[in-house]
Input
Amino acid sequence: MVFRVRRNVKTLAHIRMRQRFFANNGHPGAGRNRDGATGASAVVEVPPGTVVTDIETGERLLDLVREEQEETLLRGGRGGKGNAHFKTAHNQAPRFSQPGEEGEERRLKVELQIIADIGFVGLPNAGKSTLLKVLTAADPKIGNYPFTTVIPNLGVMNHYDTDIVLADIPGLIEGAGSGAGLGIRFLKHVARTRGIAFVIDIGDENPAESLRILRQEMGVYSRDLLKKPCIIIVTKMDRVEAEDLDEFALERFRSAVEGTIVPVSALTRSNLDSLRSALFELARGTADQDMDREVKGS
Output
């Protein structure tokens, strides 16, 4: 069995629908001492960030992160030897042969832990999917209700001729770090991003408290998540412009938190160029950190 990484494959839904994979059998030998053709491999195409684990032992077998990466995990059985192999001077036409061996079988768990340059992290209905849609060619499901996104969505933003992979992580809620709202599953995806863009709805009752909850739940899951480079995106600024909200809400938020803050409106497309530049700088900074780690480790 061969696992092959394809960028255009976004989910593992095709594996859920077909849970058993078989390689083709090899062909028997033919006349004039010709070997039989080798059976075609069973190829399973998966998205970047796929992890393959042995169900029986819990051992992690593959961590597939590079586009077009190809790994052979289970091998077919060795073919047997035909009767010509056993031919001797005293037995010119042996009537026996060696049978082929069985191929390997294994029960595997295939799990997607996405790989992205930047992950959008926010409370449910904060506007993450809408941002992904206006910044990239992705077409995530969008609805005016919590938990519209139940699986991560990926999109590619091009800025200064550089492709930046963005991930819309399903919404976190208070208690996510302890498993509430499938939080552990969602936080696993955050762990596989290089940088984080916190997405905060300016219309929240207390936007600073929303940010605190997100950081708290990430820290409960893993303190390492809090070390990732980050920016803060304040969404739905059109509500302030339409005088639905106090015009000083953004200033109060700025004074209550630390970090780079980029206010935007996906509805009116306001300040999106500044957001693209901020995401580009964040992605470039994470790439520099990765390079530093590689140099120190070499």
The chain is about 25% helix and 20% strand. The longest strand covers residues 193-201.
